[in-house]
Amino acid sequence: MSLPVAARIARRELRGGLRGFYVFLACLALGVAAIAAVGSVRESIESGLTREGAVLLGGDAEMTLTYRFASDEERAWMEGVSDALSEVVDFRSMVAVVRDGETERGLTQVKAVDDAYPLYGAVALDPPLPLDQAIAGNGAVMERVLADRLGLKPGDSFRLGTADYTLSAVLAREPDGAGDGFGLGPRLILRTAALEPSGLLAPGTLYEVKYRLKLPPGHDIAALEREAGTRFADRGMRWRDARNGAPGMTRFVDRMASFLVLVGLAGLAVGGVGVSAAVRSYIDGKTEVIATLKTLGAEGCTILAAYLMQIGVLAGLGIGLGLVLGAVLPLAAGPLIEPRLPVPADFTVHARPLAEAAVYGVLTALLFTLWPLARTEEVRAAALFRDASGRVRAWPRPRYVAATTGLALLLIGVAAAFSGVPKLALWAAAGILGALGLLVLAAAALRLIARRAARARALRGRTALRLAMGAVGGPGGETQSVVLSLGLGLSILAAIGQIDWNLRSAIQQDLPDRAPSYFVVDIQPGQLDGFLQRLNRDPGVSRVETAPMMRGVITRINGRPAREVAGDHWVVTGDRGVTYAAEPPENTVVTDGLWWPSDYDGPPQISFAREEAEEIGLKLGDEITVNILGRDITATVTSFREVDFSTAGIGFVMTMDPAAVQGAPHTHIATIYADPSAEAAILRDLASAYPNITAIRVKDAIDRVAEVLAGLAAAIAYGASATLVTGVIVLIGAAAAGQRTRIFEAAVLKTVGAVRGQILAYFALRSAMLGAAAGAVAILAGGIAGWAVMRFVMEGSYRFEPVSALAIVLGGALATLIAGLVFAWRPLAARPARVLRARE
Amino acid sequence: MADPILSLSDVTLTLDGNAGPVEILHGISLDVTPGETLGLVGPSGSGKSSLLMLMGGLERATSGRVLALDRDLTAMNEDQLARFRREHMGVVFQSFHLIPTMTALENVATPLELAGHRDAFERAADELRTVGLGARMDHYPSQMSGGEQQRVALARAAAPRPHLLLADEPTGNLDGANGAAIMDLLFGLRDRHGATLVLVTHAPDLAARCDRVIELADGRIAGQTARRAAE
């Protein structure tokens, strides 16, 4: 093989320009641009989060305690290592407003602060008062959504627990808002000192105290974290620092972007089908050139190298175009997006996402062009003398099959590495490959069925339909590329439609049927009897469940640090609810081990949720150390239980024997299952009698989750629409590529007596059949994906959603029909004599 | 003498070329009688194929009149021409022009279906057997040799029993043996169905089998030879 010769041949061939390669370029550019744009936005947000880490966190470092304030010793250490220290108390409560004898209540997330708050950034208020002034004395500020809900304006009074406060201003922006994560209620800020009369921080009440540290310049944050870990790890103190000021937000942006990149990859796969078809058609058109070169003595590998170089240059052009688009679009949209983001973002050109998108582009281009390029080796010099195009083997030589397989595996590996969520990437790859496999089979089946149908007696006399069947089922044609490209795009939309509908119906319809009306926290032990009496005599209440609850952090498992054993499992990453019970609560299913005797008084024992235990790798007899209120309790796992968290009822990962936590201050939680008509009166009576408790209306929480979910579904649908646009480009490419054939067919049909209406009907039927078939397969693939996600990821049930499914079939048929008809005008208008003589 | 089945009066054809309009045919007038076999000969570019296309309504004359079976082809629109062809004409091309996505049987049945024949497939099968392709009915054009493809094209043209058979160099792409076989078939079909045959050819032996031969040069009739009586 001579590479210089191949390069010279490639250069000469490239003089032909880009004609025939517009779809190739558009497919690659669009796919790369989508991935680069998503990656750039992610990088911009993450860079903003890093830059503003201290502001988002509220300090250079933060140490959190549950249920308690820091001891003098702990505080002394924090003051010793920092330039400034701020103490923030965070808990849920209910704001009450009495108006015309009626009390209105709203859930809120209270942030009680000291004079040092905020260490970084500034609180913005409306009217623009300084925070110190706004929350002086019994002054407070709250988010507009809560003030509006309760009809409050600055100067009005409201009640929190058993104390009254005055709303001084509306909270427009809190600098550390994004770092606090997902809250069920809108924010309210007041002074910690002003909380005293509210009675809300009684022993056992659920609250967190966060100590924010402003560290001296040149501090070694990693060393400080290690020191804090050594000193306080066993006291239930949790550490966060400005290196990742909003871990929840970072994780969310990361996951979301990874998912969107995978959707973008699917788009690139759709584009790959178009790229492959374009190269195939180009190589077919070059049969004579290749045969001539072979006649002149060119070896197969020289010719392959020449065409690989040409396609490489064009692919480079497409990828470059995509990278420019992917870099410029977020830059251009940045000023519009940034004010709407809850987090800071640095919209600039980021190299890493562009490099990643380029790697994806190169691998996809290679993956989808190698197979058609390998056909150059199959062309014989004899093709010059007789039409040998129909005799090219369907499968290239084994080395190309192996190279293609290797490239596919490499692409999957790269996606797994780049996305940071290898499992999701592998599942997505399996899904895309599965859908492609299904579509290849479907295209083959469609051709077979159409071929049979074209010969069926039933279709005789129905010329347009029979011609359409013949064209769909016949050799060559666009059946495979249209079904593959449009089908894959529609499959992704169908899967998103099915998953979105199932999730929403699970959360908005199924869950409210099973979920309680209220979830009540902070019921003091002395309040429990009165609380239950009120509910038990209410005919509107069907069921009440209560359980004692305290919060604890798992610090050690079998003597080793818990994070070392269980990694980032959610059970060990924060504080968890712990309960105690002498006997197994009603409906408890012990799957393994034995529950302690009801009068047990020996060494502490613990019953652990079965599924979570399996995930962490716990077995009976293991020892777990839980830090509750600064006290370590080491208990032996003696049983595993089934716990269903999907019903929004009471479910604890850990239940201890009563003696183990004897004397620990705690409160009770309750779930109330009531008739909707009785809900308002229950809330009124309970909140009036026990102002310290917090009742969360489960339906409101569900609505909040559904809102977030709707936003996610919309973002993913936007991502998927890029895939569909690529699918439509491939479709248009296939229709355009087929135009020459259609012009010829129309000419022959006119010659043998077909009128234009019949030819148009034939073209329309042929297009619509392909689109409908792609849509039908998409529903099957989308349904399977939806079922798999609901069954294995969400562990829920799956129901087929027919409306979006029908829209997808119709959409597919309509898209191909329009593309087909747009490209039908020239064939219909062409004069047969000129068309046919041009082919003589 | 019977009324002509085809009558051309002062027909001209001008096409748009890259360098401006190109005059292909200049004032052609001729009559073709029913049952006659007319050969059109002449050097390449003389306009013989264009003349054949005008006769079939596949090309529109720039001026003049083309009458076929007393119908003015120049006054018909595309669809009227298509209907006229399916009722009265069969056309055979040098490059066969079979539809590649259809089998041999489907290619032959298509004009019969378009003409509304309920027995289109039975008649198409009979026609294919007549041209010796009874065993290749389900084959696609790409699976057949050139000679076989031209036989399918012949069957397709003859199946609707047209009054007029137009053939544009039907043996031009075939070797000698295949070409001779195709010509035997073409003349056999014409004899069997009593159709009028207009044939464009370069082959002197083929022209010799025609009743009359018209020679074209530079888009004009340069000469005419009657080999034998048309009756």
TrEMBL record, chain A:
Q: Which UniProt keywords apply?
A: Cell membrane, Membrane, Transmembrane, Transmembrane helix
Q: Which protein, by its recorded name, is this?
A: Putative ABC transport system permease protein
According to the record, the segments passing through the membrane are: 20-41, 259-283, 315-337, 357-374, 400-418, 424-450, 708-737, 772-793, 805-825
Entry-linked InterPro entries: ABC3_permease_C, MacB_PCD, Membrane_comp_ABC_pdt
Membrane topology per the entry is: Multi-pass membrane protein
Per UniProt, residues of the ABC3 transporter permease C-terminal domain are 723-827
MacB-like periplasmic core domain: which residues? 26-227
Where is this protein localized, as stated in its record?
Cell membrane
> Which residues belong to the signal peptide in this entry?
none
Q: Can you list the GO cellular component terms from the UniProt entry?
A: plasma membrane
TrEMBL record, chain B:
* GO terms assigned for molecular function: ATP binding; ATP hydrolysis activity; transmembrane transporter activity
Cell inner membrane as UniProt keyword: yes
InterPro entries, from UniProt? Answer: AAA+_ATPase, ABC_transporter-like_ATP-bd, ABC_transporter-like_CS, ABC_transpr_LolD-like, MacB-like_ATP-bd, P-loop_NTPase
**Pfam family of the protein (one):** ABC_tran
Q: Where is it found, in Gene Ontology cellular component terms?
A: membrane protein complex; plasma membrane
- The highest taxon in the source lineage is Bacteria
> Has the keyword Transport been applied to this entry?
yes
Query: Which terms are listed as keywords in the entry?
Result: ATP-binding, Cell inner membrane, Cell membrane, Membrane, Nucleotide-binding, Transport
Domain ABC transporter stretches: 6-230
The record's similarity note reads:
Belongs to the ABC transporter superfamily. Macrolide exporter (TC 3.A.1.122) family.
Q: What is this protein called?
A: Putative ABC transport system ATP-binding protein
Q: Which organism is it from?
A: Rhodovulum visakhapatnamense
